[in-house]
Amino acid sequence: MIIQPKTRGFISLTAHPEGCANNVKEQMEFAAEHSIADAPKNVLLIGASTGYGLASRIALAFAGGANTIGVFFERPADGDKPASAGWYNSVAFKKFAEQKGLCAENINGDAFSSDIKEQAIALIKQKFGKIDCIVYSLASPKRIDPFSGEVFKSVLKPIGTSFTGKTVNVDREEVTEVTIEPAAADEVYATEKVMGGEDWELWIQALLGENLLENGTKTVAYSYVGPEITWPIYANGTIGAAKDDLMRARTAINFLMAGIGGRAAVSVNKAVVTQASAAIPVVPLYISILFKIMKEKGCHEGCIEQMVRLFRDHLYGISPMKSLDDEGRIRLDEFELSEDVQHAVLDIWPKISTENLNQLSDIKGYKQEFLKLFGFGLESVDYGKDVEI
């Protein structure tokens, strides 16, 4: 069938299998040009099908030669309905990795559940023996507590006071103003339960309990800080509270892994176009401005560039875990938050409007990157051809 993009808000209802495969291949080719010294051998990635999780898997496999298990929750094709982008990404990754002689296993299901943890444990025992790296990169709107069965839903809201600020309707290329009421206490708690570090801890506990972690195992989870203009809705909002809980979990995991000489890290990454970031009010407009500035300055990076740098320069290689900030976090956002870049952003922010959006931002580039998440807009693909879904 011929597949065209059908976008609704921050998602596409369709995905293109060939486009997704070519997107994975482009990242694979970049990673293959950047060797990661002393890379891990067997890696478990929890949240591995899109964004930073997928880029982590590609970097570790094609720059480091790692065997991988990817855990994700994606939708296969159903009749004439294409699969989700993450499904096609994972199918393509497995194909390319196996062509390179690497082991690449996929587990599709709810990573928060005990059942999926048990499946992963069984697979590690069967095919890997032990794991020496765990990447935790889940972004989900809800979580079912594996013990109580209670359903928690995350929200993107400020804490304490309402927030009013600029945002952009990407489809219409229209700058608007959004007001978001503050989160209630139970919404903050629920967001921490979904997007915080509790499940990261549970994964480590489960793997340690089965003696499946090598001595010196490293684990990393991802966070974001961003500039002050995004703080009310991000760093100081509900998602920021969840990221604070991620830091709490890092400390707890370091204690848990002390007996095997393991180490947990939180990496603060730069703003990129992902399905998760597209859902956050204000952030798409900020990213559109940021992209324009960073491209002009020659310091723009996407997910794969960031992840190669993370594993090559910070977690492994010559001096691993040496360059941490005052809170003990790895910082990959130094170019984004540099004084000259942020000064340029703050100069544009109060001026930007629907009328000058294309002049003062890279909204076109943002839309291209968004469509690319779903396999669309790649020059290497003929979208007028029938494709097997």
Radius of gyration: 20 Å
Molecular shape: globular
- Point out poorly predicted stretches: none
| Average pLDDT over all residues | 95
**Number of E-state strands:** 13
- Main sheet strand line-up: 5-4-3-6-11-12-13
CATH fold-level topology: Rossmann fold
H and E order = EEHEHEHEHEEEEEHHEHEHHHEHHH
Oligomer, anyone?
single chain
The structural domain count equals 1
Q: What structural class do you assign from the helix and strand content?
A: alpha/beta
CATH architecture: 3-Layer(aba) Sandwich
Largest sheet: 7 strands, parallel
Distance between the termini: 7 Å
Could you describe the 3D structure shown?
With 389 residues, the protein is α/β, with parallel strands linked by helices. The protein has a single domain, classed as Rossmann fold (3-Layer(aba) Sandwich). It is built from 13 helices and 13 strands. The chain has helices at 17-32, 51-62, 85-99, 114-128, 185-195, 198-209, 238-256, 275-278, 283-297, 303-315, 339-348, 357-360, 363-372; strands at residues 7-8, 11-12, 42-46, 67-72, 104-108, 131-136, 142-144, 151-153, 163-169, 174-180, 213-223, 263-268, 330-331. The chain has a 7-stranded parallel beta sheet with strand order 5-4-3-6-11-12-13, sandwiched between helices. α2 links the parallel β3 (42-46) and β4 (67-72). α9 crosses α13. The radius of gyration is 20 Å and the shape is globular.
